[in-house]
Amino acid sequence: MLNALLLAFGVAAAAPALTVRLGRAAGWVLASLPAGLTVFYLSLLPRAAAGEPVEQRFAWVPQLGVELALRADGLSLLFALLIAGIGTFVAVYAGGYLHGDRQLPRFYLLLFAFMAAMLGVVTSDDLILLFVFWELTSITSFFLIGYQHESEESRANALQGLFVTAGGGLAMLAGFVLLGSMAGTYRISALLADPAALTGHPAYPVALVLVALGAFTKSAQWPFHFWLPNAMAAPTPVSAYLHSATMVKAGVYLLARLAPGLGGTPQWFWLLTLAGGATVLAAASLTLMQRDSKRLLAYSTLVALGTMVLLIGVGTPAAIKAMVVFLFAHALYKAPLFMTAGSVDHEAGSRDVTRLAGLGRSMPWTWLAAGLAGISAAGLPPMLGFVGKELAYEGLYGAPWLLVGLIVAGAVLVLVVVLVAWVPFAGREVMAPRTPHEAPPSMLAGPLVLAALGLLFGLAPGLVQDGLMRPAAAAVLGTPYAFDLYLWHGLTLALGLSLLTVSFGAVLVATWRRWQPAVLERFGGVRVGPVAVYEGGWRRLLRFAEVQTRLVQSDDLRHHLTTIVAFTVVLTAGVALWRGGLDSMVWAPQGAYLHEFLYFVVVLLATATVVRSHSRLVVITSLGVVGFGVAFVFVLFAAPDLAITQFLVDTLVVIIAALVLIRLPSGALRSEGGRDFRWLSGAVAIAGGALITGLLLAVTGLPFDGAVTRFFEANSYPAARGRNIVNVILVDFRAVDTLAEVVVLAVAAAGVAALLRRRLGAGDADASAAVREPEGGAR
Amino acid sequence: MNSLILRTTTRPIIVVLLLISVFLLLRGHDLPGGGFIGGLVAAAAAALYAIAFGADAAARLLRVRPELLVGWGMAATVVAGLLGMAAGREFLTGLWWVIAVGDQELKLSTPLLFDVGVYLVVVGVILRFVLSLEER
What we know:
The complex is a heterodimer.
Chain A: H1 2-22, H2 26-30, H3 32-49, E1 54-61, E2 66-72, H4 74-97, H5 104-123, H6 127-145, H7 152-183, H8 188-192, H9 195-199, H10 204-218, H11 227-230, H12 236-245, H13 250-262, H14 266-287, H15 293-314, H16 317-348, H17 364-377, H18 384-395, H19 400-422, H20 441-459, H21 462-477, H22 493-523, H23 530-552, H24 557-579, H25 594-612, H26 616-636, H27 640-663, H28 675-700, H29 707-720, H30 725-733, H31 735-761, H32 772-777
Antiparallel strand pairs in A: 1-2
Helix pairs in contact in A: 1-5, 3-4, 3-21, 4-5, 4-12, 4-16, 4-20, 4-21, 5-6, 6-7, 7-10, 10-13, 10-14, 12-16, 13-15, 14-15, 14-19, 15-16, 15-19, 16-17, 16-18, 16-20, 16-21, 17-19, 17-20, 18-20, 18-22, 19-22, 24-28, 25-26, 26-27, 29-30, 30-31
Chain B: H1 4-27, H2 35-53, H3 55-62, H4 66-86, E1 96-101, E2 104-109, H5 110-134
Antiparallel strand pairs in B: 1-2
Helix pairs in contact in B: 1-2, 2-3, 2-5, 3-5, 4-5
């Protein structure tokens, strides 16, 4: 299993080069990876069905009890098969849909990286490992939503999706750590084996809410639902894959995965059913305002996700059975619906369902796929969607108020299906923005095969019953559960409810053209609820950042330095005085040689020159003299490496500063800042010097512990073959620190290069602003 | 800066400075010196050249862009670390190969490679500053 994940990530890395090399055939060839993975995961099914899932464990961070543990039980494999299987067709579809797009190589990289991460999520048996993959899916999703990165709206939507899902992910991480400390292990299978340790723990409600936050944001549950319809800014293959069939179901997966350990409590029931129910109702009512086929489908996806969450919340065997079947059916019909909507957009040039009609004549195969998937989505026989919906109704017999919500939502789904799979194709052809023609084979393969599977499994649910559905339900319930699936249940209450749903849906369809414009006009521009909260919060955050930046990041280096030094003095001296840190200060002057005094005098004189001088050049050179004087002190006290470094750094600082000064307009130094500011900076500088002096005296007043020195003296040569301890520390003992410093230097250089190029290019008026840059990097 | 005296003295001086910088780099493990110090000396030499002959001449002399030096340097430090891992030890563990050359021995090691990386980064970074400022 680990090899499968590594292979997927490897192919993702190689995808851009392959795409360029393969040209037209790239989609078909690259799809062989997910196709192969599908076969691989199929081969794991028998063991999962037999109750002995395949497991793999590798030590990863043993110090933290985090391991690279993978496990493929029924639930994992159901998801893995959907991810790899639908991924196959999405890869093929994207080859046609994005043909000729110059970013296609990048697209395949992101798509496969996402797929690998998603497979990681569903096969992880370690909470921390799951979290890592989880965040990877958020990041790849961010890049895919923002695929058209020249578009402002696309970028904003990508950012919104990232903020919501990654924010929830952080809460989830906190929840995972809590769970880990409650159970004493991060291994999921071990965690779930002892539910009493979790549900009986005082911190259980906190952990539950935190984990649920992660799941709800990812699966776009109310009140976090708003990012998902906006994610439709992504190209259609992405919408079909990430934002309906796979990624948004990660939250559902997490809840289902943890249900045996965390579920079965009143808190679990109320949290999940309320969130799921609210999502179903909110999404169903928001659907009524949509005319864009992709957004219609996005809201219907929200309805489906809400249904799954509330079924998990109910948690009875009947509800879980329904959840598993419904999830499978939903993936099989929603992906083709998205793909056909994308094909229509691609071939006819519009997604506005009011502007499309009669495409069935020119796009018969697309219509067939959309129709088959649509029948399944509407919950009509003989499709798998019908089986799933009937089961969902049966699963909610115990909670009539949820059932009512689901029936209303089901009617809205019927409306969506008609708008997306019937209206654009039927009737007389209208003028489409583009002359329509049938989609290429690459864009037909996925919709047709997936929709046909929905039909096949609907006619013969026994095909997936024992091998796939039962093991998946057993994993969610925590115990084996035998059930049989039938297309025809007989004349049951559920059938009656289905009839009710469809007839209500038919009423909606028949009257849609009459009420829809009015609804759109009345509520179209209204921003209320969570979206308003998000947007308001976003605006306030930006404003706060602006004020904060103006306050802290003034354009003046002297203000920066004054602030930094003043804060350091106040905080350090405050703590030192309060905690008695300066008590060890001893004033014990020792005799010094004349030349040692001379260096001291030189430094003092140079300092006086710095303060008194009116010329920038004199100031900078005098500062260099101060530095040299200090370097001589290092020479006197036998620190040659330090002394050499100090000499060189001071030399280069003077050179660089001089180069900057040459560019500045000449002018008297004294005129800048004014008298008061000079006094203030003088006071701050003296306070800073006094603080350092005091601290040094306090430190030298303490007995010197030579343990560190002794260690390096003893080990420098035997362990690192070097006699220069300073260098041995830099390149061997503490080489990681040096590595980090090298990176910091490189980043500073990149920043300076970019700033200087722009500033100097912009003209000399701006050049003064460049003064502060070299100082930061001169170290 | 158009100064005959500066230009005439610069040529021999930067040769000496560059030699010293390599000398400091190579002996750094046992005696005062090392990649950081050596890099600073080399950067000072290049800065002197840029001041005497102009940024364009300095860039021509260097042949590669300073950014590339930074990149190579970082690559060298990381490779030095990975070599340690390739030998089955922790990241950045020092590896040593002693080769006899006549009656002397030549000590090659990953810490030396690491130090060369630091040297290149320091030279590249400071040259980036100087050349950006000196460019007209």
